[in-house]
Amino acid sequence: PPLLKEADLIALMDKHGIGTDATHAEHIETIKNRLYVGVQPDGSFVPGELGMGLVDGYDSMGFQMSKPDLRAELEADLKAICEKRKQKNDVVRDMLHRYRYIFEQATAQKTRLEEALAIYFGNPGNQPRP
Question: Which has the closest alpha carbon to 28: 11, 15, 41?
Answer without folding.
Answer: 11
